[in-house]
Write a structure and sequence with these properties.
The structure is a single chain. By secondary structure, this protein is mainly β. Helix content is 6%, strand content 33%. The protein has two helices and eight strands, in the order ββααββββββ.
């Protein structure tokens, strides 16, 4: 399956019935990391999991898997990456998104900076990096 480079985030969520419509529930961490914002409208692709191939009578709560809990970060400590800072976090650090929306926090950067960073720490949904080289800065018109 081919995924768009415009993909902001990828998660497993529940679909809830609400009278004559349905709602897709996004995990709190997607909102907290800024990948999506409450109250906004997004395109959503619904992809069945392997457990959904069963009939409802065959499925049990124990069958449901949560792949986002088992995923490894797309970067390793010590790895270098070229990133572009696309926003500034609450504490003033630059935020870059790589590999399907994975967040990299980079201190001492501004929106539009293109930098090479070295990954210092990784977590399931965020990495912290230091600048090792600064490239040209995009100008905002």
């Amino acid at each position: 399956m081919e995924l768009s480079e415009e993909l902001l985030c990828l998660f497993t969520g529940q679909v809830a019935e609400d009278e004559d419509s349905y709602q897709v529930m996004a995990p709190d961490r997607e909102i907290n990391l800024g990948a999506v914002e409450g109250g906004e409208t997004y395109r959503v692709a619904i992809i069945p999991t392997e457990s959904e191939a069963k009939t409802p009578a065959e499925s049990t709560a124990d069958d449901v898997s949560h792949p986002e809990q088992d995923e490894e970060p797309p970067v390793d400590v010590g790895e270098t990456r070229e990133v572009e800072i696309d926003s500034i976090g609450d504490k003033g650090d630059g935020i870059a998104r790589i590999d399907r929306g994975y967040v990299v926090i980079v201190p001492d950067t501004e929106v539009g900076d293109q930098v090479t960073v070295q990954i210092e720490t990784t977590k399931e949904n965020v990495a912290f990096a230091e600048v090792v080289d600064r490239h040209h800065r995009l100008q905002n018109d």
